[in-house]
Amino acid sequence: MSTTTSTTPAGRGLKFDIRAAAPFAALAVLIVVGALLNPNFLSADNLLNVATRSAFIAIIAVGATFVITAGGLDLSVGSMSGFVAGCMILLMNAAPLGDGATLIALAMAVAIVLGALCGLGNGLITTVGRIEPFIVTLGTMGIFRGLLIWLAEGGSIAMKAPDLRALYRPVYFGTVFGVPVPILVILAVGALGAFVLYRTAFGRHVRAVGSNEDVARYSGIAVDRVRTLTYVIQGVCVAVAVLVYVPRLGSATSTTGLLWELQAITAVVVGGTALRGGVGRIWGTICGALILEVVGNIMTLSNLVSEYLIGAVQGAIIIIAMLVQRSLLRRPGT
């Protein structure tokens, strides 16, 4: 005879998901550590700056959550970000100035379409070509980076019109009721992503494909279409992140987006999404992106570890997160 440790009023079992709560607990611990190491860490300006700087990775990682939940992987997001940013800036530089707002809106629309097409290419090559996503996106990572370097002629691509740059700046530096615009974009993308993944038939199909591809196919789910669409979502998320990134510096270089794929995948894994597929946590992913930025901020404000080791620390974080996931999977009832 077995009993549940806790039940709802209706008598249904209530199970506490440690993996879902872990990233938020880790973020809380890091905030306490940061406050102890430097009192300025808890200042409103610093916390808002941390959340704002996490926008790029958080938005991209939402798309990566869909891809990974469906059992895929995308290593090209960093290079894709630089390529989309470079094309967007070149368009704004080539077009006659005219109405600046209209030009910016056009460039944004083109960036979204280009990001979706890049994602579609990754998805089709993976599904129709029957090639492992690791190989496909490793190849497109090199293609996108090479195209960016070619467009920039080995240098940088900068917005030329000062008036246009001034008009575009509020997309990153602006606020709405005191809240930075990038934070609002994170919340909007997260809310939309959570709705699609948890409340729609497509989201259920994504999870089903990642859990067991054969069972999903026998259940009538168009596995290839679902997987391809997750890559399209990833491309759109990359483009949205670029829309927020470009006004920050007003330029794209050969190193734009470098190692963003590592940070995005780390945010997804730290957030509790299973790298093997089948389980996706949008808000956990966003929390994971915040964790990465908080760790970097703590390293910058303290003298315990050199800030030049941020990449090494992030690499260690993803390894630790995978070890924790593996240990939790081995525990009964989790």
TrEMBL record:
Single GO MF descriptor: transmembrane transporter activity
**Membrane topology field:** Multi-pass membrane protein
Principal localization reads membrane
UniProt keyword list? Cell membrane, Membrane, Transmembrane, Transmembrane helix
* Segments traversing the membrane: 20-38, 50-68, 101-121, 133-152, 172-198, 228-246, 282-302, 308-329
Protein's UniProt keywords contain Cell membrane = yes
Pfam families xrefs: BPD_transp_2
**The keyword Signal is assigned to this record:** no
Subcellular location(s) per record = Cell membrane
List cellular component terms (GO): plasma membrane
Protein name as annotated: ABC transporter permease
Question: What organism is recorded for this protein?
Answer: Inquilinus limosus
- Which taxonomic lineage does the organism of this UniProt entry have? Bacteria, Pseudomonadati, Pseudomonadota, Alphaproteobacteria, Rhodospirillales
